[in-house]
Design a protein that fits this description.
The chain is mostly helical. The chain has helices at about 10-15, 20-30, 30-40, 50-55, 75-90, 100-110, 120-125, 130-145; strands at about 150-155, 155-160. The protein has one domain (about 5-160): Hypothetical protein af1432, CATH 1.10.3210. It is built from 8 helices and 2 strands; from the N terminus they run ααααααααββ. It has a two-stranded antiparallel sheet.
Length: about 160
């Protein structure tokens, strides 16, 4: 749901196999505003609207849309940023193949304090090691669902799996 705003981004940008131009990147960043606008007036999703808006803010202030920093970012958005990154790294993208679960954990650890709240990363990385294989297996299952053919509506893709 956090990336529902990507429904408003053209497929040519979402599915581009190479780097985005500056203009394309600016348009892509608008998915958080579009998503916020979509969910803010839905009663059971209204509380999540700010998380949708903030999920690409960085702990060091270098994110978007508003350049929020540290505690200015809602705790739910700081948590979601870590989970979203795990998903993004371990999922195939048009421009790269998925990386390993271990690689994702290493990246998250490395970005603690810059992209991510160190307290959130600490809790995330201290999840008991017996739980990680289940999380990794579930992530692979979600990735498998997202590879299934998708229904087309207008110029945007809809379907199962995580929209990222």
């Amino acid at each position: 749901m956090h990336d529902i705003g990507k429904l408003g981004i053209p497929d040519g940008i979402l599915l581009k196999p190479g780097p985005l131009s500056e203009g394309e990147r600016t348009l892509m960043q608008q998915h958080v505003r579009i998503g916020f606008d979509v969910v803010k007036d839905i009663p059971f999703l209204a509380d999540a609207a700010e998380i949708v808006l903030m999920h690409h803010e960085r702990y060091d202030g270098g994110g978007y849309l508003r350049g929020l920093k540290g505690e200015e970012i809602l705790p739910g958005a700081r948590i979601f940023a870590v989970a979203d990154t795990l998903d993004a790294i371990t999922s195939d993208r048009p421009y790269r193949r998925a990386s390993s679960f271990e690689s994702a954990l290493d990246t998250i650890r490395r970005l603690s304090g810059s992209q991510f709240d160190p307290k959130v990363v600490n809790v995330f990385l201290n999840i008991h090691e017996d739980i990680w294989p289940t999380i990794a297996r579930n992530q692979r299952q979600i990735a498998g669902l997202s590879k299934q053919p998708r229904e087309r509506t207008g110029t945007h893709r809809l379907g199962l799996g995580v929209i990222s």
